[in-house]
Amino acid sequence: MTTWTSDELNRIATTDELEMAPLRDDGTPRTAVPIWVVREGDDLYVRSYRGIDGSWWRTARGSHEGHIRSGGVDKDVTFIEEGDPGLNDRLDNAYRSKYGRYSGTYVEPMVADTARATTLRLVPR
User: Fold this and answer.
1) Phi, psi values for residue 5, rounded to 5°
2) Residue 1 falls within a domain, yes or no?
3) Is residue 108 part of a domain?
4) How many CB atoms within 10 Å of residue 76?
5) Does residue 39 sit in helix, strand or coil?
6) Which residues face 65 on adjacent strands?
7) How many domains, the chain?
């Protein structure tokens, strides 16, 4: 399995948004959508603001493959579903820390149980 370089991790983790284009069942990419991304150690994670109703997330969960663009990094990725409560607690803190200026309106839904249930780890391919 491929890993992120330190440069890629830093570049993606320090940008506000990531362009996410999961692959459909037929292998074609959906139109890219901007989403938030956080770093935990040497991994990158995303969640669906709308929970399981997020269309990009449903597509990503179906194919487990897609393409991301952020901070000058352009990569094909695999999506790994994550459900560890300890990890989700750390990611909640990462979302609050990175996006705290959006507290309330946007941050709280990203750390709610509905969003936590959609946590995906991004693994470069």
Assistant:
1) -80, 160
2) no
3) yes
4) 14
5) strand
6) 78
7) 1
Structural domain of 40: 6-124
Domain contains 21: yes
How many Cα atoms sit within 13 Å of 109 on the Cβ side?
10
What is the predicted pLDDT for the residue at 1? Answer: 64
Residue type at position 37: V
The pLDDT value recorded for residue 104 is 72
Q: Note the pLDDT tens digit of each residue in 10-37.
A: 999 999 999 999 999 999 999 999 999 9
The helix (run of H) or strand (run of E) holding residue 49 is none
Q: What is the pLDDT of residue 2?
A: 85
pLDDT digits (tens, 9 = 90+) for 61-77: 999 999 999 999 999 99
- Is the residue at 40 inside a domain? yes
Q: What confidence category does residue 103 fall into, taking pLDDT thresholds of 50, 70 and 90?
A: confident
Q: Which CATH number does the domain housing residue 47 bear?
A: 2.30.110.10
123 close to 67: Cβ distance less than 8 angstroms: no
Distance separating alpha carbons of residues 51 and 116, to the nearest angstrom: 8
Half-sphere exposure of 30 (CA within 13 A, CB side): 24
Distance of CA 89 to the CA centre of its chain: 15
